[in-house]
Fold this sequence. Notes:
48% of the residues lie in helices and 23% in strands. By secondary structure, the protein is of the alpha/beta class. It has a five-stranded mixed beta sheet. A hairpin with a 4-residue loop joins strand 1 (5-11) and strand 2 (16-25). The longest helix has 19 residues, at 43-61.
Amino acid sequence: MSNTYRILGIDPGSRLTGYGVIEVEANKYRYVDSGKINLSGEIHDRLREIFFQVGKLIELHQPNAIGIEKVFIDKNVDSAMKLGQARSAAICASFNFNIPIYEYSPREIKKGVAGHGNADKQQIQKMVSIILSTTKKMNSDESDALAIAICHANHSGNIMHLR
């Protein structure tokens, strides 16, 4: 039985959905994969693409857990609704795999990675690179998804040792 715990982080978006995969073993974090799902067309086409692409990522990486960002309500209700739909499509993609899903607010993610809830995108990218010891050039959607995975690893503590 392996003591390696694999986490898929998802930063949902209706135009671009970021993903990041890390492994945790003996409190050491390792970068596995990251990228973005580019979305176009009508909203139902984009949601279908998120559903299928996240399903493929789960099949490929076989994570023990999925971390996903919670929806935050901004001034634009329509954008928040689309973000909620994108998030739901990603969550539904996991149902056939029986993988636990953990949700984190943007503030929790920032605090879990940078130590404070007001970190900006550049601080998150830098901390993700440091924590994962990677020099990979990544966009903010990828680094945000990796930050979500790191946040889950930090929050889960001994949960990883129970699997």
